[in-house]
Write a structure and sequence with these properties.
Largest sheet: none
Strand content: under 5%
Distance between the termini: 9 Å
Radius of gyration: 11 Å
GO cellular component, one term: side of membrane
Order of helices and strands: HHHH
Shape: elongated
Pfam family, one: CFEM
GO molecular function, one term: metal ion binding
Oligomer: single chain
Number of strands: 0
Number of helices: 4
Protein name: CFEM domain-containing protein
Family: Belongs to the RBT5 family.
Structural class: mainly alpha
Length: 56
Amino acid sequence: EKVPSCSVPCIQNAIAAVTPCHFTDYACACKYHGKVTSAATACVVGSCGLQRAVSM
């Protein structure tokens, strides 16, 4: 499933903040899924809206 464009900056920033991974290194970023999700959630809700955020 494609990631909505409204969430991309949030996810990029979360990956940079809580992992040693580059945004395009999906295998690395997936190892930190929980940390990335926690770090990105508020931003994604703010950028995409609650309804869209919970459907991701």
